[in-house]
């Protein structure tokens, strides 16, 4: 697994209503190993609220990448990361039902559409 030499991304505030389906945009296509649904991924990521544009989480802010088994993550990541290649940067716009569920679901981000920018550093 490699460290990212990319800098922390910035996300412009979206205009209009949040999408009802997962939106996947490759900002940069990688040329390394491809993530599979069964993979454990090493990533740097930024998460912002679609409505406010405010950051709620960032591995860059903590100063280190994170390893996650994809099967343990929100559905939007489980659907949006497979097929991504190491070295790539991808933006996922995740509707509430693929994130933390409807409002009142018990998680502070329940009911919110979320935007993630993910750098894939490695897969296992």
UniProtKB/TrEMBL annotation:
Renumbered residue ranges of the record's region Disordered: 1-21
Classification via Pfam families: FKBP_C
Basic and acidic residues biased stretches: 1-11
EC number(s) stated in the UniProt entry for this protein: 5.2.1.8
Domain PPIase FKBP-type residues, every copy: 38-124
Alphabetized SUPFAM superfamilies for the sequence: FKBP-like
UniProt GO molecular function: peptidyl-prolyl cis-trans isomerase activity
Keywords (A to Z) from UniProt: Isomerase, Rotamase
InterPro entries in the cross-refs: PPIase_dom_sf (IPR046357), PPIase_FKBP_dom (IPR001179)
UniProt name for this protein: Peptidyl-prolyl cis-trans isomerase
Top-level taxon in the UniProt lineage: Bacteria
Family, as annotated: Belongs to the FKBP-type PPIase family.
Catalysis performed (reactions): [protein]-peptidylproline (omega=180) = [protein]-peptidylproline (omega=0)
């Amino acid at each position: 697994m490699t460290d990212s030499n990319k800098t922390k991304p910035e996300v412009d505030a979206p205009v209009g209503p949040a999408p009802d389906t997962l939106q996947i945009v490759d900002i940069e296509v990688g040329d390394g190993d491809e993530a599979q649904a069964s993979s454990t991924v090493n990533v740097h990521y930024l998460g912002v609220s679609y409505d406010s544009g405010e950051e709620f989480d960032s591995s860059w802010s903590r100063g280190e990448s994170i390893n996650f088994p994809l099967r343990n993550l929100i559905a939007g990541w489980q659907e949006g990361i497979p097929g991504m290649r190491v070295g790539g940067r991808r933006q996922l716009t995740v509707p509430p039902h693929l994130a933390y569920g409807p409002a009142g679901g018990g998680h502070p981000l329940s009911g919110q559409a979320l935007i993630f920018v993910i750098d894939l550093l490695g897969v296992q």
